[in-house]
Amino acid sequence: MLQIEKNHDLTPYTTLRIGAAAEFFAVIKNKADLLEALTWAKERQQPIFILGGGSNVLITKKVKGLVLKNEITGCHVLKSSKNYTWLEAKSGESWSKLVNFSVQQKLYGLENLFLIYGTVGAAPVQNIGAYGVEFKDVFDHLVAIDLRTGRDKIFSLADCHFAYRDSIFKRRAKGRYFIYSVVVKLRRQAVLKLDYGTIREELTKRRIKQPSLAEVIKVIQFIRNSKLPNPVVLPNAGSFFKNPEISQAQFKLLSLTYPDMPKFIISRSKVKIPAGWLIEQTGFKGQRLGSVGMHAQQALVLVNYGQAQPREVLALVRKISQAVKRQFAIDLESEVNII
Ligand code: EPU
């Protein structure tokens, strides 16, 4: 029988180690638990909030209704063809476990997404990405459970409306589904994406021309560890803001004043500016405001130095957003889900 607790503190379930209580809370270990929770919530007309690895969330106030901590785990080979292997993972499985499993199976596609915190179920919501690869590049389909009816629904690539750190699950389908399992389609032959600046630089430094899967993993591990703080040691939620998109026209204008302004080209009319660079320019890199601050090695990562209160985070976020707006006329948008 499902255990539902009242006023349960969510702080330990977030990598930022900032939280508040859930009005009601249950750990979901399997589909039966989930269906029981849905019935419980329906009978009492309580809203449902799903928590995965807590690595992309800032909880600022008591969460009303029933919070479900997704611990439905497992991953396995679903099928193989000459060129591809499909892996299926349950949504509460750790993303790292799936990546490690794919590497053990000598499959290609997930290596650039190595060491990203969080669960498999969050990957499609966020369309997680790193070093030139996004989750959508390996996605095959997923099974979600309709929170209102308890029925399964299959989402194809087209159904998910993936975009930069965005999907239908953050928009039209927000709060409507529990993502239950995800299937990724991985290559059996070596196809590596090595064009991201820091990967290329690191491979050149190591004099590696044709890296193996293991070498790519090592390089990514090295880059991430040198820039991104380990949340177990220094609580954080990865990139706090999205990299903003601006028009080529605005970029041209800004680069008259900031000739070194970096960019990622998106289309003929749009470029993406690294928010870390913008924040660094405003002087917030490595700066501390009370118990929170922006990381000294990566200005995009907001860290909790211990016992930080949600209002301290919100104050720092406001200050940074205002500074970037004042200096560059660019709006920063939070990447972290603020509740
Ligand atoms: N930069 C600075 N100062 C900084 C940080 C970055 O000037 O303090 C500039 C540099 O020019 C650097 C460029 O920004 O070359 C890009 O930096 P980095 O490679 O670290 O990537 P990012 O754009 O800051 C994004 C993702 C990360 C992902 C990396 C690598 C977003 C919001 N973030 O960061 O994802 O790991 O690229 O692909 O798109 C996450 O989503 O939580 C996350 C960590």
Characterise this structure.
With 339 residues, this protein is α+β, with helices and mostly antiparallel strands. The protein is built from nine helices and 20 strands. The strands form six sheets. Strands 6-7-12-10-11 form a five-stranded antiparallel β-sheet. The longest helix is centred in the last third of the chain and has 19 residues, at 310-328. It is globular. The protein starts with a strand and ends with a strand. The model has no long low-confidence stretch (mean pLDDT 97). The chain binds uridine-diphosphate-2(N-acetylglucosaminyl) butyric acid. Uridine-diphosphate-2(N-acetylglucosaminyl) butyric acid is lined by residues 130-131, 197-198, 227, 238-239, 242-243, 262, 274, 276-277, 280, 285, 298-300, 335.
Helical amount: 25-40%
Secondary-structure element order, N to C: EEHEEEEEHHEEEEHEHHEEHEEHEEEHE
Regions with pLDDT < 50 over 5+ consecutive residues?
A: none
Number of strands: 20
Shape: globular
Overall residue-averaged pLDDT value: 97
- The strands making up the biggest β-sheet line up spatially as 6-7-12-10-11
| Radius of gyration, taken over Cα atoms and rounded to an integer in Å | 21 Å
- Give the structural class: alpha+beta
Bound molecules: uridine-diphosphate-2(N-acetylglucosaminyl) butyric acid
CA(first)-CA(last) distance:
29 Å
Number of helices: 9
Give the percentage of residues in beta strands: 25-35%
What kind of sheet is the major sheet? 5 strands, antiparallel
